[in-house]
Amino acid sequence: MLTSQNNTKEKEGRAMILERITSKGLAHFSYLVGSDGEGAVIDPRRDCGIYVERARRLGMRIRYVFETHRHEDFVTGSVDLSRITGSTILHGPGTPFAFGSTVYDGQEFALGKIRLKALHTPGHTVESMSYALYDTTAGNAAVAVFTGDTLFANGVGRADLEGPVPEMAGLLYDSITGRLIPLGDGAAVFPAHGEGSVCGIGIGKRTVSSIGVERALNPALQVSREEFVRQRIEERHELPAYFKNVEKWNTDGPPPMEGPPRPAPLRAEEISARLHQDALVVDVRTPAAFSAAHIGGSYSLWLDGLASFAGFVLPVSAPVLLVAERLEDADRAARYLLRMSYDRIEGYLHGGLETWYAAGYTCESVPFLPVRDLAQYLSEGRRVTVLDVRSIREWESGHIEGALHIPAGQLERRTAEVPGDGPIATICGTGNRSSFASSILRRRGFTDVHTVLGGMTAWRNMGR
Ligand SMILES: [Fe+2]
Predict the structure, then answer these.
(1) Could you read off the pLDDT of 294-322 as tens digits, one per residue?
(2) Ligand 1 centroid to 92 CA: how many Å?
(3) E-strand spans in 10-154?
(4) How far is the CA of 71 from the centre of ligand 1 (A)?
């Protein structure tokens, strides 16, 4: 009895370990995989302590860090992780990385009883790699594949980042059909992103998938090569300015990050002084709190929207000040921004907005507009510009007649298209992006700005 228990324990200790680590906002997935005390991390994020901690708890030594490609939306944690763990960084050929080693198509890496095989799958970027996972105790077929930004659940990677789109889209199609699908329907698919990422269009909600599931359900895989390429050419992707900086860092090696970010507490006077030195305030409180009172010139950006929208308005060189409801929120915001290469987080307003107005500083507000009032204004023919800041897809699925459409990410550079001589009502799905849009307009000197309460959800629920 005792022996059999020991055997079971021993077997458990040697079984393959596979964990997904999700970074919200960026909708980024990274993975820790290994067996028999030897492990690897795929696509680590910048605050890489989490992998070190998890591996320690599992009694695992991280031997390799595999990059599926040079990410453009977040700073890699591979250099720090390699320094801390003594692991080897591996990435694909064709990009002049200043760190790590090049992995070649077909190269294999053993970790205990598992094996990772590198597959060159260009298309999203030229050096994109996928890594097929084999368990030597479970037959010859791949049990899983880490697909990076080549294949997602319900979507495929964008092909507009490097080289001509038709060529890159063709490569992407060939990589998926020629390298990934032949791994077999049973191979689980582990991509680098989930729903909400800017790295692909239409990424689905399912977080569990396989080659078989994608072959059957992924819309991009139901069409000919020609049609696949045409669809990629027609995709309209956003390109936030911070991508350039991330690309550079992820090629040259990012500056080291010493532990988790801890923004400094700042008093109202210190915030005020920094505002005169071109610092930008990012207010991560709820739209309702922002609407009621905020520091003039602040951007209203909800926490989970930072990854998608901060990159459109904050220059990477700008000093950033945070206004949050709670200290944990300020820490989270700093962490999210550092993942995007914003290294100048000067601090947060200690004590929250109360300390600002209690110190005698003025506040600004953005009135909320209920949908019934908006409907009445429009039916009476009153002049009001409805500014819809949702995505093109959402806009095309239905909108208020006569509304002006500028996606939230484009608004800062397109404010000239917004009429400046009358009331403006910003609207989105529920109220986060519209609050962001209102804050952009207020910064640009628009005075008569309203945020539509409840957005298109409320508008539809009103029965219009
Ligand atoms: Fe990517």
Answers:
(1) 999 999 999 999 999 999 999 999 999 99
(2) 13
(3) 17-23, 28-35, 38-42, 61-66, 88-91, 101-102, 108-111, 114-120, 129-135, 144-148, 151-152
(4) 5
